[in-house]
Design brief:
homodimer; 154 residues; mainly beta; six-stranded antiparallel barrel; 1 helix; 7% helix; globular
Chain lengths: 154, 154
């Protein structure tokens, strides 16, 4: 396997997990910055052309002694019943890697100004990739999440 | 940081990178299996409800002595000019993590039968997450990739 290396840090308005909007209908329109390490700047060449980016980051508050504590079943904020961790975006997963899709607003050197951050301030970044295509809405099934929404709307 | 752990392996028809469709207009409709470790089976609870999954995996052929060799600029198969690695899906990135969105066809215990694999057979898996929402096509800008397509179609 490989040893993950930090490529930068998130600048976010959220200082604690309690501040991050969670649960059904949570909106993620907070603005923040992906602050990439100076020496990696050439890696950002041409990124301005993409409207949306996939950001991989570390749930670093879940780690102690290089090990992530994880649970195979957990109850997300969006439901009142447990689901398998791989059917959720919960933090306590075997590899503590988070994924967020953000809108790229502008780039200033190694600082990517983005909308849609749900990470905590100071979160270490692992990767940034262009978001290239979408699944058409009519082809997407959203499992327990759609069911939880339906229960809420009853 | 954390030490990545393998959660399973990809079963794919592709044995070498040369066999994986690449470049403009490449179709990824190959079927394969995400073979999750038996002891993680509870983590798959309720995953059947989702039509599409985000799969994180390791570019394991890029690693030697725990280090990934990377290049900040590279020329993808879909273009004839170089771009920053974070504006591409190229393999030689600071963290050798690949991302593929697959369609979940069915689950048999710890075996997830999926369509859309572009990984090599035996690729180690890091995470599986539900695909929850799409960026509407009219809001998506695809940077150099759209330009490369336009040049091809001239």
């Amino acid at each position: 396997m490989f040893l993950p290396r930090v490529i930068g840090y998130v600048r976010s308005p959220y200082k604690s997990t309690q501040e991050v909007p969670k649960g059904l209908g949570a909106q993620h329109d907070a603005e923040g910055v992906l602050d990439i390490l100076q020496e990696l700047e050439p890696g950002l060449t041409d990124i301005e052309g993409f409207s949306h980016l996939i950001v991989l980051w570390v749930f670093d508050r879940q780690i102690s002694d290089g090990k992530a504590e994880f649970e195979l079943l957990g109850t997300p904020a969006s439901d009142d019943r447990p689901h398998g961790v791989f059917a959720t975006r919960l933090a306590r997963r075997p590899n503590p890697i988070g994924l967020t899709i953000v809108e790229l607003l502008r780039r200033e050197g190694t600082r990517l100004h983005v909308r849609g951050v749900d990470m905590l301030d100071g979160t270490p970044l692992l990767d940034v990739k262009p978001y290239l295509s979408s699944i058409p809405a009519e082809k997407l099934r959203r499992g327990w999440l759609a069911e939880a929404e339906a229960r809420r709307d009853q």
